[in-house]
Known about the structure:
Layout: H1 2-21, E1 33-36, H2 45-55, E2 59-61, H3 73-79, E3 92-95, E4 98-101, H4 103-113, H5 121-145, H6 158-186, H7 200-215, H8 217-223, H9 228-239, H10 241-248
Parallel strand pairs: 1-2
Antiparallel strand pairs: 1-3, 3-4
Helix pairs in contact: 2-4, 2-7, 2-10, 4-5, 5-6, 5-7, 7-8, 7-9
Amino acid sequence: MALFTGYAKTLSLSAWLFRILFPSPPVLPRMTYHLHYWPTIQGRGEFVRLALEEAGAPYVDVARGDPDDGGGEAALMADIGAHDHPSFAPPYLVDGDRVIGQTANILLHLGLRHGLAPRAEAGRLWVNQLQLTIADLVAEAHDVHHPVGMGLYYEDQKDEAARRAKEFRAQRIGKYLGWYETVLEKAPKGGWLTGEDLTYADLSLFQAVEGLAYAFPHAMKRLAPKIERVIAVRDAVAKRPNIAAYLKSDRRIAFSTEGIFRRYPELDPA
C-alpha cells in the first residue's frame, strides 16, 4: 500500500512538472469567414449561411456590409477575380488563404470543420451526394421561371415557363423529395438524413423545402402527406436554437421574385 501511495505521489509530481514545463497553448480566436454573395437575395448563398449560423461560426457577409467598412456589392465585384483560384460566380468563401467556390464544395469544407458532416470519408461522400442532389433540384426550380435564357426576363418566356412549371409540379418535385423521403426511411434511427446526427444536408433540405413551399404552395400542400419525414426534418431544423434565432433576425433575407425560388401564381394553380 505504501509503495502504491509513493507511486501516486510521484505521478502527481510528474504531472505538476509537466504543466509547468509545457503549459497548455492559448485558445486562439476562430478565424472569421468571409462569405461573398449577392446582398439582396437568398439564392445559393443561403445554403452556406445556414451552415455558418448553425455552427455559430463567425462570418462576414461581405456584400451586405457597409461600403465605408470595405463591404457592399462593389467589394464583391472587386474581389471575385483577385484570387489565384477565382470562383466562376458567387457564392464563394474566403477562409484564411483558401478561396472556396461552389455551394456544395463550401459545405464540404465547413462540414468537417464544424461537426456538420461525418468524419469518416464514406460518410462525408454520402452527405456530399445528398447536397449535390439538392443542387440539381435547385437548378431545376430556377429553370422553371427561366426555361429559355438567363438573360431574358420572366415576362419574355412566360409561355415556356408555364409549360415547364406543369412538369415540375407534377413530376419533378415529387421525384426529388420522394427520394429524400426514401433516404430518411432507410437511415438509422434519429430523424436526420444520416440518422442521429444533423448534417449540412439536413439544413439544405430545410431550405429547399421552404423555397418550394414559397414558390409552389399548392403543389407542396398536395405533396406533403407523401413526404412526412421530409417535412419533419424541415420542422426540426427550424426549431434548432441557432437556426430559429437566425430566421427571426434581419440576417435572414426574405424570399422574393429576385431569387431562385419565385412565386408566380400562374405557375402554381390551386
